[in-house]
Each structure stands twice: as structure tokens, then as C-alpha cells.
Write a structure and sequence with these properties.
Elements (H helix, E strand, L loop, with lengths): L11 H10 L5 E7 L6 H4 L10 E6 L1 H6 L2 H14 L4 E6 L1 H4 L5 H8 L6 E4 L9 H16 L10 E5 L8 H14 L3 E6 L5 H5 L6 E4 L2 H15 L3 E2 L5 H16 L19 E5 L2 H14 L4 E6 L5 H8 L5 E4 L3 H11 L3 E4 L1 H10 L2 E4 L18 H14 L3
Parallel strand pairs: 1-2, 1-3, 3-4, 5-6, 5-7, 7-8, 9-10, 9-12, 10-11, 12-13
Helix pairs in contact: 1-7, 4-6, 7-10, 11-12, 11-16, 14-15
Length: 399
């Protein structure tokens, strides 16, 4: 068996927990076998040490012999006491799922006396990984909680996508709010980061939806479009032209003339300057287009670790002449970066380590990140301010 030095995605239970932990007051209960390891310290970095909203239930020999019912119910009752008018999300680890216990039946019996809403995650504990599980969890919460409502009097949008899964979510949330506000559009709800159950319930009041993380939002965006006739913009406002394109798309949906005060970047990079990117596909694609199409960089390598986006990612950058890689094998990515010999590397914590070895400049722009870098940042690469920030990174790297 080949071991990887770095895993870009955790198991499904991690994606469920990161989404649920983003919601105010929500609790996550993970059923796992004794010995299963869960990065609870990572999940809890946005919280006080004694109030991590994720609990793992270690199932051992007794549960193998007599079933999980007693231990599971005891853990549920404890979480139901701790939560207040919120939601408890239950997920299984891959190992626990192999017990083939009817968890849903146990939950049905518990729901007759519970005080909080209890949801059994639909994410598959083995087939799904972190991002897909996060997407399914967000969709499931929207399906369970969104209630029919009259549209807001003035045009408004929901911002869907900021979560503990992203290292720049707070900054992205603020940046997207500023962009929306500059058009005179109101923000109806932001989720899941900092959201309440009420925010989920009021989703249908908005006229449209935008996202800061399409990879975990597309399921919910599609559901809201189908069930509540809410169109959405899936493009990220990255770069000057990317921000104008985002504004045009939202303007067409909401019926306003989009005006974005941007300027063409007065930037002439070195002819041999090279940048390597590693990020979720929409972020990597947006940055690659900004660097190659707007700034004129000839040497751009773009990589994403979400393999389900392979064809779409390659097609999206085909016209830009950018070399693309889609793999979750950190050894392959490291090898490609080293042979590319970039001057600047933008990626995860793993790529920052590659930069140290190759003496390239680097900036961490994507999870997963080392625990020392995972604290929610207040920066963003979205909008015109984000474009200026990228220009600053290039300048400091000697472009």
C-alpha cells in the first residue's frame, strides 16, 4: 500500500462535521469504532477548547456483541440536553457503517422525545469524501429547513458557501457582502458559517443566490432554483474582469445595470515569471484566468484535488493555455510543481512546504492547512480588492 504524505480531503464524517460546526448551536455526533481517529482539534480551532461542537462515540466489543442502541441513545440524549433550539446531525465513520446497524430506526424511536431537530446525514461514509459530504450536508439542511416564504420587498440574495471548510471564509463572506451591497442589493442570509436555523428557514425570501464556494454549494443552489425559482450565479468574482462578469450575471438575474469600478491592471510581469496554483476547482480556475488572461502571465500551472471536476476544470482553462492537473496524489502534485519551477506557489499548506524546498515564494490560499494556519482569516481573493491583493503577492515575489 502506498502512503501519501498529504491528504487533501478527509473522510465523509469530517465534511459533515465541518459543515455542521459552522452553524450556531448545531451539534455533530459521529458514530465510530474505538481507535477511529477524528481531527476534532482541527474542527475545534474556531471554538473554545471546551466547547467543540463535535462528539465521537467510540463503539467497542460490547456494541459488537449487543448492538449500538444503548450507547447511541445515551449520546443522543446528552447532545439533546446540550443543544438549545438547534439541530443534531448524526454521521457514521466508514468502519462503523460496516456494522450494518439500522441507525435510522434508532433515531425514529428517539425523535418522539427529542427537543432539538435530529438529522441523519445522507453522506455515504465510505464512497464520499470531505467536500462531497459537505455539499450533501448543506443540501440536506436546506431541504429540511427551508420554508416557503414571500419574496423580500427589495431585491435580495443569499450568500451560500462560507464555512469552516475554507480558510478564508470570513474574508470571503465580508468581500461578497461588500460587492453585493455596492449594487444596492440586500443580503438575506449567509450560510452555513454563523447561520442559525432561522437563516435556513428564510432562504426562499431571497430573489437569487450567490456562492463563495461552489464545490459545496451546487447541490443546495440547484435545489433552491428548482423548488423556489431562485436563479443563482455560480461564478466567483476573481480578478477585475471576473468581478465585472459576476456583476453582469447578477444584474441580468435581478434586472439592474451592473457597474463595477475597476481598472485594467497596469501590470507587466517578467516574461519568465511562473506561478503554480493548487485549490478547489472554481478558485483555481478563476485565479488562473486572472493571471493568464488579464495579467498576461505565460507560465501558469493550475491544479485541483477534487477529481470529479477533472473534465470541467480542463475545459474551463483550455482557451487560456494554462496547464492543468487534477489529482489528489500529493506526490504527483509535488513532482509537477518541482519540474515547473515556479517563482510563486499559491496552494495548501502542503504546497507551502514544497515552496520551502524549492525556494519559491508562497501563500496559503486553500484548505487543508496546518493547524497553525487554519484559523479563519479575514482576507479574501474575491472582488477588486482581492485582485489588488494578488497583484501585491506577485510584486513581492519579484514578478
Amino acid at each position: 500500500m502506498r502512503g501519501l504524505k498529504w491528504l487533501y480531503e478527509g473522510p465523509a464524517s469530517y465534511g459533515v462535521a465541518m459543515t455542521a460546526a459552522s452553524i450556531e448551536g448545531a451539534k455533530t455526533l459521529i458514530l465510530g469504532m474505538l481507535g477511529d481517529g477524528y481531527p476534532l482539534s482541527e474542527i475545534g480551532l474556531g471554538f473554545e477548547a471546551d466547547s467543540i461542537p463535535v462528539t465521537s462515540v467510540g463503539l467497542g466489543r460490547r456494541e459488537l456483541s449487543f448492538g449500538i442502541g444503548e450507547r447511541f441513545l445515551s449520546a443522543l440524549e446528552r447532545q439533546d440536553e446540550l443543544a438549545q433550539d438547534s439541530v443534531i446531525i448524526v454521521a457514521e465513520s466508514g468502519a462503523a457503517s460496516m456494522l450494518k446497524e439500522d441507525t435510522s430506526l434508532i433515531l425514529e424511536g428517539f425523535k418522539s422525545k427529542n427537543r432539538n431537530r435530529v438529522i441523519l446525514s445522507k453522506a455515504h461514509p465510505i464512497r464520499d469524501l470531505e467536500y462531497k459530504a459537505a455539499e450533501k450536508t448543506l443540501l440536506q439542511l436546506g431541504q429540511e429547513l427551508a420554508a416557503p416564504a414571500q419574496r423580500s420587498k427589495n431585491p435580495s440574495v443569499n450568500i451560500i458557501g462560507p464555512s469552516l471548510l475554507g480558510i478564508n471564509s470570513k474574508g470571503d463572506m465580508r468581500a461578497m457582502g461588500e460587492i453585493i451591497g455596492s449594487f444596492g442589493i440586500e443580503v438575506n442570509a449567509v450560510l452555513p458559517l454563523g447561520a442559525t436555523l432561522h437563516d435556513f428557514a428564510t432562504l426562499p425570501k431571497a430573489w437569487a443566490n450567490v456562492t463563495t464556494s461552489p464545490e459545496i454549494s451546487v447541490g443546495l443552489l440547484s435545489f433552491l432554483e428548482k423548488e423556489f425559482s431562485q436563479p443563482y450565479v455560480s461564478d466567483l468574482p476573481i480578478g477585475f474582469e471576473g468581478t465585472r462578469r459576476f456583476a453582469r450575471g447578477l444584474g441580468e438575474i435581478l434586472g439592474f445595470e451592473s457597474r463595477v469600478d475597476t481598472h485594467k491592471a497596469d501590470f507587466k510581469p517578467r516574461a519568465d515569471f511562473r506561478v503554480a496554483l493548487v485549490a478547489p476547482p472554481e478558485l483555481a480556475e478563476g485565479l488562473a484566468k486572472f493571471l493568464s488572461e488579464e495579467l498576461g502571465l505565460k507560465g501558469v500551472l493550475a491544479s485541483t484535488f477534487l477529481k470529479g471536476y477533472r473534465d470541467r476544470f480542463a475545459e474551463g482553462l483550455a482557451a487560456s493555455g494554462v496547464k492543468t492537473i487534477t489529482t489528489d496524489d500529493s506526490d504527483i502534485i509535488k513532482g509537477e510543481i518541482e519540474s515547473f519551477e515556479p517563482d510563486l506557489i499559491l496552494g495548501t499548506y502542503n504546497e507551502s512546504m514544497v515552496a520551502e524546498e524549492t525556494h519559491a515564494a508562497a501563500s496559503i490560499i486553500s484548505a487543508p492547512a496546518d493547524r497553525f494556519h487554519f484559523a479563519q482569516a479575514n482576507i479574501s481573493l474575491l472582488g477588486t480588492k482581492g485582485a489588488e491583493r494578488i497583484l501585491g503577492l506577485l510584486t513581492r515575489a519579484g514578478a
